[in-house]
Amino acid sequence: MTSLAPVTTDAPAAGLPRERGGWWHDFVCPTHGTELLHDGIPGPVPPAGGVRCPHGCVVDTDLVRGAWLVLSHQAWARRARVLAHRAARTGDEAARAEAVSLLVGYAEVYAEVAGGGEHERAQDWMLRGRLFHQALTDAIWSVSIGHAVWSLAEADPERAADLQPVLGLLDATAEAARAARARLVADGRFTSNYTAWLNAAGRVCSRAAALVRRSQGATAVGDDEWLAGEHGQLAHALAASTPGGWEWEASTYYHGFVVRAYLLSLRGTDPAELPAEARGRLVAMIDVLAGLATDGGILPSVHDGPSVRPALGLEWTELAALADGFVADAGLDAVAARARDEAAAVHGPGSGQHPGPDGGPDGLEDELRAMPWAGRGDGTGGWFAGPPLVVDRAPRAAVSVDEEVGIVVLRGAGIHAVLDHGPHGAGHGHHDKLSLALYGRETPWQPDPGQVPYGHSAWRAHYASAAAHPVVRVDDEDPAEATGRLVARDERSVTVEVRGDEASWFDGARAVRHVVLGDGYLLDVAHASADRPRRLALGLRPDVPLGVRVDGDVVRTTWRGAEALDGVHAAVAVGPDGAVPVRAAVRPGPGPAVDPQRERAHVDWAAEGTTSATWVSVFQADAAVRGGGADVARVELADDGAEVRVHRADGAVEAHRLPAEMTP
């Protein structure tokens, strides 16, 4: 069990910030695009003179100060929650005293700085909060405050009167959540990911307040409004996700974001007693993450969201603990383990992000996994009032597809590939139509690049662009938003397509991608055509050292990391006057969004003045993990364009017939 770091002030609440927070996405270096360091968090005021950047800058602006205050408020609320969980579980008096002090202190802060209503400095587009710019941020913060009160009041009703000063805060945050949700519903935005957190805040803070009042003889209030009501959490889960379990934006981050809100709001319920459809959908949403992750725990950051961030690591470990309480064999153990390792590697001692000894984990995950006082009393955990659901799952398919959001996951031969062809994803979408991400168990060979904090508009635009993704591009421009379609699939392959017009993708162009799990390799064939001579290019965007060698008509690539990947490539293109050369050009470019200053080799494999181009790639992982088979020596496209032939080093030749959509 991880122990908590001692508080250095005589009165813990003295360390609380006494200013409103801003928008955390402004916590970004304007020069380098990296998230700033969490110096002094949690604490009362930002560092004097400014906040440091990992590359040496010191940034001191009102926006950065406001963002620092968001992170500090959230860290203090999390600390209060961990202390309260621990005090309730163990009877630790010091932990209880500090938790109560922080909660009562926050009641004073909230009344002092947020009593005037909505935040007057929020941007016009925002759903305004009270303590922070955004109502969403208010909700996330208040969920931690509410759970802290819930734990203390439930575990020790006789002393719940100590928490009466917090009732005003709890009532105000629940009412603010209700009002914000009503605005979303009125605007036709019920499916927004905000709604999940507003419902969580309403349910948790209402229940916490009821537990405090019950200790004084009041009757506990019901919370059907927040869970089973018309716009409650269960209705939102069904409305905002596909039958296959994906949150509608198909963003890994926002998918986990809403699932965590759902599970936090379901505290004290029995999973088996939830309505069958909602229960099944929540299991499917957890399964989506398990199915998207590599066996080594890498979660591809499809669409918006950070690829690696210490605070995100804490979210994944919390979600994994909650998921294990909801459904048996949730499948997120590797994700949680990797998140712990990444957080420890990125965030060193004394950073403040992890308010435990020497900057280590603060123990929230441990507490969630050891809460018998709230459950069955048998020492097996108790966030939920009943045991984890036991569900029958079919063996994981080599090729899995969610047709509604257009995400395909292919697993085989030591390669984990993610092919994205569905809707854009609204405000969290990227221009990644027909993007093919490639991972090993532990290695992000060609990952989804993720996203920087939104406050850096230039780098945010880059990481949402086609140029940042391994996709087909036309004339080096960004496409219009587009939705692709599934052409065909079977147990070992998938074919997807996108067509452009004046309002979608590239006008007058189309692209098809056919991916096959071969015998010990992954075959990728991309085909693009245009209604006039144009520049057609396919990008490779590695996050590992990449070697590129041209050998006649064949391009060979070597991808290095914890695991190795080798590629053999060929391409053909034609224009109005016949064959057009296809050239692979290597240039330096930014790596994934965790640090835009980290340089990687970008490859654009392009043909100029062409009306049709086809690129063929065969990828092989290390022989030890791919399951045998001789190395691939070369690959060729048949003269009629209807077949790909894979030539092995031992002389064997394997032919793959291409779909009609790729045939001239």
From TrEMBL:
SUPFAM superfamilies: Chondroitin AC/alginate lyase. Its main location: periplasm. Residues 343-366 are annotated as: Disordered. InterPro entries: Chondroitin_lyas (IPR008929), Hepar_II_III_C (IPR012480). Residues 349-362 have a biased composition (Gly residues). The keyword Iron does not apply. Keywords: Lyase, Periplasm, Signal. Residues 403-508 form the Heparinase II/III-like C-terminal domain. This is Heparinase II/III family protein. It comes from Isoptericola hypogeus.
